[in-house]
């Protein structure tokens, strides 16, 4: 008596080939799907880094410019009336003086350049005090 494999358990070479091809497709889809997730995470990290850079420049400009405008004018300045920026390289804060009729300043403009790491331009009442 010879033992024969039942017909249900026999698999032909063609069936094995089909299973292998399906398996390769599944693995391919999984790899593509996970690689797309990785690139989107990298994009978010880039945007987050840009936002952190902008916030750091804004904080530095507020701190340094407020201090130097107060020193040069003798008046305490708090909140700028206008802010100009390209969100990557510079922040310009502009103040309108409150005591212009009593001998105070009319306008003050202070530009912080992120690449220089400090104030690049300070103009008070049209007179350039710092120019880098």
Quick rundown:
By secondary structure, the protein is α+β, with helices and mostly antiparallel strands. The chain has one helix at residues 13-73, and strands at residues 82-85, 90-96, 107-113, 118-124, 127-131. The protein has a 5-stranded antiparallel sheet, with helices on one face.
Please provide the ordered H/E string of secondary-structure elements.
HEEEEE
- Reading side by side through the largest sheet, how are the strands ordered? 1-2-3-4-5
The chain-level structural class is: alpha+beta
Shape: rod-shaped
Oligomer: single chain
Count of alpha and pi helical runs: 1
Number of strands: 5
Q: Quick check: average pLDDT?
A: 85
Fraction of helical residues: 40-55%
Radius of gyration (CA) equals: 33 Å
Task: Note poorly predicted spans.
Answer: none
Summarize the biggest pleated sheet.
5 strands, antiparallel
Strand content: 15-25%
Distance between the termini: 100 Å
Give short descriptive properties of this protein.
single chain, 132 residues, alpha+beta, 5-stranded antiparallel sheet, 1 helix, 46% helix, rod-shaped
Account of the protein in words:
- By secondary structure, the protein is of the alpha+beta class.
- It is 46% helix and 23% strand.
- It has one helix and five strands; from the N terminus they run H-E-E-E-E-E.
- It has one helix at residues 13-73; strands at 82-85, 90-96, 107-113, 118-124, 127-131.
- The chain has a five-stranded antiparallel β-sheet, covered by helices on one side.
- The longest helix is centred in the N-terminal third of the chain and has 61 residues, at 13-73.
- The protein starts with 12 loop residues before the first helix and ends with a strand.
- 16% of the residues are buried.
- The model has no long low-confidence stretch (mean pLDDT 85).
